[in-house]
Design goal:
- The structure holds 2 protein chains of 2 kinds.
- By secondary structure, chain A is an all-beta fold.
- Chain A contains no helices and 12 strands.
- Chain B is 0% helix and 49% strand.
- Chain B starts with a strand and ends with a strand.
- The chains are: A mainly beta, B mainly beta.
- Chains A and B meet through β5, β6, β10 and β11 of A and β4, β5, β9 and β10 of B.
Chain lengths: 114, 115
């Protein structure tokens, strides 16, 4: 069975701090995709990144970076120099190769204080 | 194209009433998904369509729930005889299979409150 675990329910940081959101996944598939979505208070899920199971290269996009490690089944997300606008709930998700159906974790609520 | 559109944004209904939600996907997307999100939880998959065919339904989708996607364009999700436990945010997403799998784009959701 597929499963995504986000053990951190809520994280609070002060602006400009770095913060890492953890994600651990379980799947029997050899081909799969991993995602991060942001859900601000408005409610809409905003796509951040998609990574396939064969690409373990870490990725950096501005202040965001992602660390994918198949050996530990983890796909962690780091925000560098956090800002108040980063405050949201962040979801990690997993999908099978032949469908875009997403299995979500329970989310991590990030609060960034000025 | 302005993205995935869901209507209504909010719906309050009395227990036992039927409700219907609509989702208009991104026009070139052939896959459409419905998810349900309750407070403090991640979205849970309900069902998905590829074109007009409903290819998968979750066990969460009881007999009171039905989804359609006539002509492979917009989709409707109907809940019959609503119960208080149906109160949740219902999210629609769309994606394209033509490019071998892409990210799903989500609408803003329909928040259902059953009183």
């Amino acid at each position: 069975a597929q499963k995504v675990t986000q053990a951190q329910t809520e994280i609070s940081v002060v602006e400009k701090e770095d913060v890492t959101l953890d994600c651990v996944y379980e799947t029997r598939d050899t081909t799969y995709y991993l995602f991060w979505y942001k859900q601000p208070p408005s409610g809409e899920l905003v796509f951040l990144i998609r990574r396939n199971s064969f690409d373990e290269q870490n990725e950096i996009s501005g202040r965001y970076s992602w660390n994918f490690q198949k050996s530990t089944s983890s796909f962690n997300f780091t925000i560098t120099a956090s800002q108040v606008v980063d405050s949201a709930v962040y979801f990690c998700a997993l999908s099978e190769a032949d469908t875009d159906k997403l299995i979500f974790g329970t989310g991590t609520r990030l609060q960034v204080f000025p | 194209d302005t993205g995935v559109s869901q209507n209504p944004r909010h719906k309050i209904t009395k227990r036992g009433q039927n409700v219907t939600f609509r989702c208009d996907p991104i026009s070139e997307h052939n896959r459409l998904y419905w998810y349900r999100q309750t407070l403090g939880q991640g979205p849970e998959f309900l069902t998905y369509f590829q074109n007009e065919a409903q290819l998968e339904k979750s066990r969460l989708l009881s007999d009171r729930f039905s989804a359609e996607r006539p002509k492979g364009s917009f989709s409707t999700l109907e809940i019959q005889r609503t119960e208080q436990g149906d109160s949740a945010m219902y999210l629609c997403a769309s994606s394209s299979s033509w490019t071998g799998g892409t990210e799903a784009f989500f609408g803003q959701g329909t928040r259902l409150t059953v009183v």
